[in-house]
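Subject line: Sequence and fold of a protein, written as structure tokens
Enclosed: The protein record, placed directly beneath this head.
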Amino acid sequence: MPARTSHTAFLALAFLLALACSSPEERFAEHVQRAKGYIAENRDDDALIELQSALKINPDDADVNEQLAGLLKQRGSIQAAAFHYGETYRLDPTRVGAAVDQAILLWQTAPRRSHQILAEAKTRFPNDPRIYRGEATLAASQKDMDAALVAAKHAVDLAPDDPQNWAALGAVYLQRTRDLRKQGSVPEQEYLAGIAVFEKLDSLTEGGHVGARVERARLLANLGGHDDEAVAGFRSAIELARSRNDPSAVVYAARRFAGYARHAGKHDLQSEALRDIVD
């Protein structure tokens, strides 16, 4: 046997022996560690393989199930993600967020099951705002905006300093105003309530919230008579995104600004927004 071939065979044998000698716990930890590195490098496919390999060794690890669920959700593998969120909550019933995520993922294919998951979680944790944010999302998805508003407001009441609760309430007001516009008109108080919610979200977010500023500006524009405030709001959102070196947020805010300007026939502002997108 040539020397190079002999050396290669020796290395392969050594590798196999090392695998045989390592314990299941060690192999599990190695898969998890490699997955962590791949996630940091945005190599989600490789991370997915490592997490799946880890679960073959220890399927009852809640952390790995939850990480795997998150990656699967990003890939659009809804049913698989829902399964692993369910496993996460079964293995660790304190992980309410996993139960909520599972319920939201299942609402289109199994709406009754979605409501059952949230109802069960609510009996265990009646004061957890995440459950009510989930209820708001489900109700809005099913076009029950009154129920969505009640649930989102309850989440805010439970934790008024949590920006996520205000974001959920803002999403409900946006949907309500869209629905009312389709029906004919939107009462002024609806616009004002939504504007107040996004102002609160912006104030609670350290350094400010780009999305909150954009949606506040859009509501001001739709309210009418507040064009100067709306323009200032769009510009403020773009500047905030630029200060954070976040090109995707700049483009998001500038596109909304351009849409407003186009609809209002303000060609100079539309050109300004398009320059922001190009820059």
About this structure: The CA atoms of residues 131 and 233 lie 32 Å apart. The chain has a mean pLDDT of 91. The longest helix spans residues 163-183. The two ends are 63 Å apart (CA to CA).
